[in-house]
Amino acid sequence: MVAQTGDGSVLLIKKLGGLILIVLGCLLTAAGFNWGSTAQAIVGVVLLAAGVALLVLKIARRNQSSQIP
Question: What is the pTM of this model?
Answer without folding.
Answer: 0.75
